[in-house]
User: What shape does this take?
Amino acid sequence: MSYQNKKVLIFNSDDFGHSHPFNMGVYKGIKSGVIKTSCVLSNMEGYSEAKELAYDLGKIKFGIHINLVEGKSLTENKLLVDSKNYFNNGYIDLLKKSFDKNFLNAAEFEMRAQIEKTLGDFKINHINSHVHTHSIPNLFNLVIKLAKEYKIPYIRTQFEKPYFVKSIKKHLTCKYPVNLIKLALLDSLSLRNKKLIGDNFLTNDYMLGVTYTGFMDKNTILEGLKVIDKGVVEVLIHPAYYEKEILKPDNYREFLITQDDNIINEIKNLGFIITDCSLKEE
Assistant: This one.
């Protein structure tokens, strides 16, 4: 990659199209200049609104956020959903079922539907997934196949360097040890998946947002960036904006990151070049 001897940061947000609070969180974060790109959930209730908001976001390029775990299926395949057409598999369920050929065929059909819907409404240059499900090896194989077919140049991987934020409070909740287990799994799968990508696609060297899922704020981001000596790191947040009652405090806190007037300069002061999934310097 052209940036391999430099420190490069992609400030990404997931879940554009999820619902009104997430749509506004992403929209305002892009408008503030902090979020440089976002990825789209094509099967969720906020998709139409996200499509309209995208018209006011200029040349921003988005990603396809493959979703096999939440909301309704576009293809209504019974191997993926319950009797009301809602996805009914979590990450572990998908991992177990990913060895079944019929299930993989159903997953590929659903992925295609989501990709084609998103490509019809957004300018796209990357692909990833809700709850990191495309890290599952056989699903990652499908994403590589589809990214090649639909000419999507960048695929997210999830390798995160371990780091520790000096805050006792963050490490006294049950979320933190669960995050560490998730980190170990995603790191091991990413090492395998990166070998498959090779030089065929763009990808990130590191991710930031797994160890401190549910705790993301400016401090966790800056501390995580300090352990990166070179390479491309994708910072991942899920910002939600609430006008009145804050229904998801963790996501609202992530929204506040995007409204910090100093965070971009602080990131640059750590030596990072800021870009998006095109990996072209601003």
In short: The chain has a mean pLDDT of 95. Residues 160 and 207 are 5 Å apart (CA to CA). The longest strand covers residues 7-16. The two ends are 17 Å apart (CA to CA).
